[in-house]
Amino acid sequence: MSQSEIPGRSAAFAALVSILTVLGAVIGSIAAASCRRSPAAAPPPSAAAAAPAVPTRPAPARAPAPASGYEFQKEEKVAVEKYLRDNPDLRVATDADQRPAGENGDVSNLYGVYHPYFVRGDANDDGHLDFVLAFVRRDSDRDSPWFSVVVFEGRPDGTFGAGAVLERDISLADGDLSLDRDSIVVTPDTGEDESRRYRWDPSRQRHVFVRDEDDTADVPPSSQT
To answer: What φ, ψ does residue 149 adopt, rounded to 5°?
Structure first.
């Protein structure tokens, strides 16, 4: 190779390097511009935002403590708590739900222990102790509560069956519940003589509404009266 050829090759090599440098700069600028134009990826929606709203039921009321007037036996309390879980819109009616009675309506002196909305007895004549209990709608007005009357039938093992509703959404703030031999008696107002009776019907295996003058009548009373 002659000395005269070296300077020409050096100039060509320098030109190639210069072209590659310029080309690299152009590619880098294009890449940077592309990055600036690309929007940032949106974060994925949270699980809480994506999940649909689930309607919630009110927490069930609890069976009242003895200080409220009642002293439920163990199995009675189990049955009442289960009923409240199945009916969270209700609470147990207590002695304080009864309005003060006038002179003619006060029957508390007739009983050694008197709870207007809770009574025990053999309501279906099977030899096992039952109990009848009133409940109050939790959304009802304090001055005009709506009551439901429920009977819990005793079993041979000492437990109780699911509550059976006798009357629902009735006015009972001036009345009470009682057992009269073979009948569950619902008295809307203790100052009045009128009452409603339910007797056990063995053929139907449930309590049925009867009239004093006609024990075969089976016409339940109206609700919210």
So the answer is: -105, 125
- Return the HEC string of the chain: CCCCCHHHHHHHHHHHHHHHHHHHHHHHHHHHHHHHHCCCCCCCCCHHHHCCCCCCCCCCCCCCCHHHCCCCCHHHHHHHHHHHHHCCCEEECCHHHCCCCCCCCCCHHHCCCCCCCEEEECCCCCCCCEEEEEEEECCCECCECCEEEEEECECCCCCECCCEEEEEEECCCECEEEEECCEEEEECECCCCCCEEEEEECCCCEEEEEECCECCCCCCCCCCC
For CA atoms 185, 172, 119, 208, give the dihedral sign: positive
pLDDT at 225 over 50: no
Q: For the chain, what is the domain count?
A: 2
Q: Indicate whether 117 and 200 sit together in one domain.
A: yes
Q: What pLDDT sits at residue 101? A: 74
What tens digit of pLDDT does each residue of 61-92 get?
776 655 456 789 999 999 999 999 999 999 99
- Give the domain range for residue 149: 66-210
**Residue 42 structure tokens:** 């949106």
Q: Are residues 179 and 111 in the same domain?
A: yes
**66-75, 91-100, 169-178, 204-213: range with lowest mean pLDDT:** 66-75
